[in-house]
Specification:
By secondary structure, this protein is mainly beta. The chain has one helix and ten strands; from the N terminus they run ββββββαββββ. Strands 1, 2, 5, 8, 9 and 10 form a six-stranded mixed beta sheet that branches. It has a four-stranded antiparallel beta sheet with strand order 4-3-6-7, with helices on one face.
């Protein structure tokens, strides 16, 4: 079974993939509550395939444990975590990359 969602974390401050970043995928419910769907860690290439084969339509959240990642490198960071909220409206593959540094981050819908 393949996952509908992948991510790739790149550390712009080192120029290398960010391996060992803990990531949690959750779905926002009708009430103000979040239900965890899956979790994992980026591999040596900074990549992670996450979640079920198909995600329910609606709003989802990816949470990246950036503070723990940088603590492991002995680097201070302004962002202890990065949360990316996105909507699923169809059954196509979703790729949500994260470009990271200790004092900034960027994301986009990839392919």
């Amino acid at each position: 079974m393949t996952s509908q969602l992948t991510t790739h974390v790149l550390d712009a401050s080192t120029g290398f993939p960010a391996s060992g970043v803990a990531v949690v995928l959750s779905k926002m419910g009708d009430e103000p509550r979040i239900v965890q769907i899956a979790s994992g860690e980026t591999d040596l290439d900074g990549r992670l395939s996450l979640g079920p084969e198909f995600l329910d339509h609606g709003t989802h959240v990816l949470s990246f444990a950036t503070g723990a990642y940088y603590a492991g490198l002995g680097v201070d960071t302004f962002y202890p975590s990065v949360t990316v909220t996105f909507r699923v409206t169809d059954d196509t593959h979703l790729h949500v990359p994260l470009l990271l540094s200790p004092f900034s981050y960027s994301t986009y819908r990839g392919s």
